[in-house]
From TrEMBL:
It comes from Aureimonas glaciei. InterPro entries: Aldolase_TIM, DapA-like. Pyruvate binds at M219. Belongs to the DapA family. CDD domains: DHDPS-like. This is Dihydrodipicolinate synthase family protein.
């Protein structure tokens, strides 16, 4: 079943999906189905796959296509699916993007390629990408300089919004980045510059402040998607303090999951302990939790359950 493409007024929570693996390292189809069901049951507005936290760079092209195809079939048009297609070669990028769109994706996500952080180079690259993909493929520009090593200024993001109509969404996860978010929000949706949807990453660590600055929602993979969904919904309803109370109940484990270079292993371990994926492994080279880490995490999960129960009891 086809779904509507992403657009300049896309809002809500687009969860970044993990890629589950079996104990022997293959993509785990059964866990993938459970993961999709888990996200949908918790009310997400969309799903983003094959991102950085989805270990896309560790998949073969055949694995990436098979995983995308399985997710899209399982979702079956119930929510939009965005497929990460970033890669060193535009031909490969285009091939995966075409496959994804032909199988029902709502759009694709593209990050800048590594290289000098020269504004003209970045603009030229995204012009090439949009030309290769054509006008029928909506693009989410991923701005994650902590990983890509390529900072993109607010001015360049706004210029690309004007110059490339295919770019309809920004995945904002620069850090510190609240000032940039404010600049992009103020500079788009004007006579000169089309509106740009802004969904925020970084695990949701700054979500209340980002929503207050004009973000349209979250695009991140925190292993408690129910928190992201409720915080965004409460904020949209004007219940700002209640949204922050909910956020605060999850903050200790959110902070723990956001440890640089280690957070993916934590995220997968939480999903495993919640009964969603069969095995928490990441593909090598990747982080792995030891016995002390596991004990620490289970204590945090138990405390999170208590915090949430107390919060609901007091509501």
């Amino acid at each position: 079943m086809p779904t509507q493409p992403i657009h300049r007024h896309t809002r809500g929570v687009y969860i970044i999906a993990a890629t589950p693996f079996t104990a022997t390292g293959e993509v785990d189809d059964a866990s993938t189905d459970r993961l999709v069901d888990f996200y949908l049951e918790h009310g997400v507005d969309g799903i983003t796959i094959l991102g950085i936290m989805g270990e896309a760079n560790k998949l073969t092209e055949a694995e990436a296509c098979a995983f995308a195809s399985r997710v899209l079939r399982r979702v079956d048009g119930r929510v939009p699916v965005i497929v990460g297609v970033s890669g060193a070669g535009i031909d490969n990028l285009r091939r995966l993007a075409v496959f994804a769109m032909e199988n029902g994706a709502a759009g694709v996500m593209v990050a800048p390629t590594p290289g000098p952080a020269v504004e003209d180079r970045i603009r030229h690259y995204f012009h090439q990408v949009c030309e290769a993909l054509g006008p029928g493929v909506p693009v989410c520009l991923q701005d994650f300089p902590q990983v890509t090593g390529v900072p993109i200024s607010a001015a360049t993001i706004l210029a690309l919004t004007r110059e490339c109509p295919e770019i309809v969404m920004l995945k904002h996860e620069d850090c510190p980045g609240l000032g940039k978010l404010s600049a992009v929000r103020a500079g788009s949706g004007t006579v000169e510059t089309p509106r740009l949807s802004i969904l925020c990453g970084n695990g949701g660590l700054y979500l209340p402040q980002e929503l207050a600055r004009g973000a349209d929602g979250a695009m991140t993979g925190f292993a408690y998607p129910e928190m992201l969904v409720e915080v965004v919904a409460r904020h949209a309803a004007g219940e700002i303090d209640r949204a922050e109370d909910i956020f605060d109940a999850y903050l200790p484990i959110l902070r723990y999951e956001q440890q640089p270079g280690y957070g993916l292993a934590v995220r997968k371990a939480i999903l495993h302990h919640r009964g969603v994926i069969a095995d928490p492994r990441t593909r090598a080279p990747g982080p792995k939790l030891g016995p002390l880490d596991q004990a620490e995490l289970l204590r945090l999960m138990a405390r999170t359950d208590i915090n949430v129960k107390e919060l609901n009891h007091g509501s």
